[in-house]
Amino acid sequence: QSSLAQPASVSGSLGQSVTIPCTGSYNDVGNYDLVSWYQQSPGKAPKLIIFDVIERPSGVSLRFSGSKSANTASLTISGLQADDEALYFCCSYTGSRTSYWVFGGGTQLTVL
Amino acid sequence: QVQLVQSEAEVKKPGASLKVSCMTSGYRFVAHSIHWVRLAPRDGPEWMGMIDPDSGDINYSQKFQGRLSLTRDTSTNTVFLHLSGLTVDDTAMYYCARFRGHYGPFDSWGQGTLVTVSS
Fold this sequence. Notes:
The structure holds two protein chains of two kinds. Chain A is an all-beta fold. Helix content of chain A is 0%, strand content 47%. Chain A has strands spanning 9-12, 18-23, 35-40, 47-50, 64-69, 72-77, 86-96, 99-103, 107-111. In chain A, strands 1, 3, 4, 7, 8 and 9 form a six-stranded mixed β-sheet that branches. Chain A is globular. The relative contact order of chain A is 0.33. The model of chain A has no long low-confidence stretch (mean pLDDT 94). In chain B, the strands form two sheets. In chain B, strands 2, 4, 5, 6, 9, 10 and 11 form a seven-stranded mixed β-sheet that branches. A four-stranded antiparallel β-sheet of chain B has the order 1-3-8-7, with no helix packed on it. The mean pLDDT of chain B is 95. The A-B interface holds A 1-2, 4, 6, 34, 36, 38, 44-48, 51-52, 57, 89, 91, 93, 97-106 and B 35, 37, 43-47, 50, 59, 61-63, 95, 97, 100, 103-112.
């Protein structure tokens, strides 16, 4: 069972926007601005798309944006394109010696 | 460019041990820690542990303490995962990932190694 909660699936039409929430606790998402998001297409390695809550790595489309409010981080994808269809998962630092990093269960995005 | 290339898929019996390699290239090996994350069929990604190739410092998730060992070979820029006492619940895709800076993120990932544990 994942420590961060994500919906199993979301969908949106081409050109629309979708938002994927990632809910943790004060011990992780709420206490650290160290949330990252990864995109994984079938058969491929995960790809970093957002880090430190809101930052985009070089080369990642401006259509991807991140935010955080209290214990919930969110990934918004605007202007949906067909190749955005993938698995998206979030990750947060916890500072806990039990496990320094925790992940969400992943959200499958379907582009209609 | 940065590359992390993992060893091939493995099929193991319960109780056996596993060794997965992660060969890195395209950057200074000792400048970035390497972390291991696994994705099981029914669960989300799970952080397993990390190794600092420079100092050899290691941190393991408490869940894997006692049966996980991470090592590195600085002559080949390779990190190894050793997992003992395998059960069917260890069936998963195992990934190594390069860590950027002191607090991440995981900015480059290996292609994954599928491990199947079955009697």
